[in-house]
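Format notes (please read before filing issues)

Several people have asked whether sequences and structure tokens are stored in separate files. They are not. Every record keeps both together, in the order shown below: the sequence lines, then the token lines. Line labels are part of the format and must not be stripped during preprocessing.
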Amino acid sequence: MNSANAFGTMYSFITFGESHGPYIGVVIDGIKPNIPIDTEAIQRDLDRRKPGQSSVTTPRNEPDQAQIISGVYNGKTTGTPICILIKNQDQRSKDYSDIAEILRPGHASHTYLQKYGVFDYRGGGRASGRETALRVAAGAIAKQILQQQHGVKIIGYTRQVGSVRSEVSTDAIDSEVIESNIVRAPDQESAEKMIALIHEAQADGDSVGGIVEVVVKGCPPGLGEPIYHKLDADLAHALMTIGAVKGFEVGNGFGSVLLRGSQNNDPYYKDEHGRFRTLTNNAGGILGGISNGEDIIVRIAVKPPSSITKPVKTANRNGEMVDFKVEGRHDPCICPRVVPVAEAMVALVLLDHVMLQDRIATSSSEERIRQKLAVLDTEMQLLQMQRTLYEQELTVMQQQAHPCNDTVLHGIRQTE
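Then the structure lines:
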């Protein structure tokens, strides 16, 4: 799919629809037939992303009910494109009517106008975070395939909100703990501090950003397409397409600048299964753009939501400075809702690379078979030559053992 609205190479999808349109939707291509699809799991991930979950998310009431209208029959894929629709049910376009001519700070209104000459100001149109529901739907299917066929588990959580950071080790991450609190923090103590900070900003008519971290457990080694489709490069691309994301890092990331090479390198050892592992994981599971079999650890910086009720001065389309504040329903912090989106984008990249690697493995297997056939052909030729030599040697030996045979045969031929 050669479109800026499409993503992926082998496992690909294209999204459509706007925040305040009747529907948003996604078409997914590249899935083999007869793969079991758990529609309830898709809905669970959509429920984790949908608005109206808690006091730290927008109160917009959208059920985000996924309607699979093609590509799945009797709970299994058919091999044809999967189309999923989600109906928009709680739009309030009038909330935006007073700001139609204003260039909203932190939003895409000005840049969309510069590029297209038109902008759907109602909720941000195509630039709205509403579009990410479709990524979650496509990613939920990718997560199922990765888990079923490759044992890969993807866990996202809010590592930090503002200045409040959870220091729980990635080895101790527990999905149940993450989903037990409304900010999706990996520990309850940090969660309570994050919630308090978000409520404080909310009361001030403001917003707050944070860091979302994603850990991939069980990722097979060898994924990645150097040099321009390295695994970490594609993960960065995928995660940076999320509207509010302003930074990406893998492993130690920017923290590695504080270390010496001797501290940042990951020494190898051989485990009890004969596999090479690393004593540390500063690289975040990726070296040379290829997965090394360790946990993949990536982080994204999520900016404070731009829609705030705190008044500011900004320009309108005529260049006049006006007083501005956003009405309507908005998130004071979007990290909790970004978590399932980040998981989805990681899953989409990983499945794409798994399928690319399968193609390489298949090609390599075919080549190995061809090589073996070529060797067998050569061996058969050599054996045939050896057989011919043995037959000639046997003939000579027989003639030496019975020299009269030739004389008798010569006499018979003369008589005839």
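For reference, the curators noted about this record: The radius of gyration is 32 Å. The longest strand covers residues 153-161.
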